[in-house]
Amino acid sequence: MKSDEATKAKTEWKEFRSDLPSGIELIGEYDHAWGTEYNGFLLFEAESSDAFFDWWSGFKDKVRWYIEQTHTIAARRR
Predict the structure, then answer these.
(1) DSSP strand E in the chain: where?
(2) Secondary structure tally for the chain: helices H, strands E
């Protein structure tokens, strides 16, 4: 990633973190998931799966220019 692209990505990330919709919370940012090829992952908690998936598709489109591949794992607490 070029320097100007890194700056743009960092700026967008700061804006993103401060502008999450109601009912969705970023509860973890991780640099690596041991045992996988992932170079980082995010952990979100949402009040409903509908709210999360409605928001998630737009988020993936927004970051697609610098994140080559994403994987979504959805879970429901017991």
Answers:
(1) 24-30, 41-46
(2) 2, 2
Number of domains in the chain: 1
Q: Where are the beta strands (DSSP E) in 5-40?
A: 24-30
CA 53 to chain centre: 12
- pLDDT tens-digit map of 27-49: 988 888 788 877 788 888 988 88
Amino acid at 76: R
CA neighbor of 44 nearest in space, from 8, 70, 12: 70
Mean pLDDT of the chain, nearest integer: 82
Distance of CA 22 to the CA centre of its chain: 16
pTM for this one? 0.73
29 in a structural domain: yes
Domain span at residue 35 reads 3-63
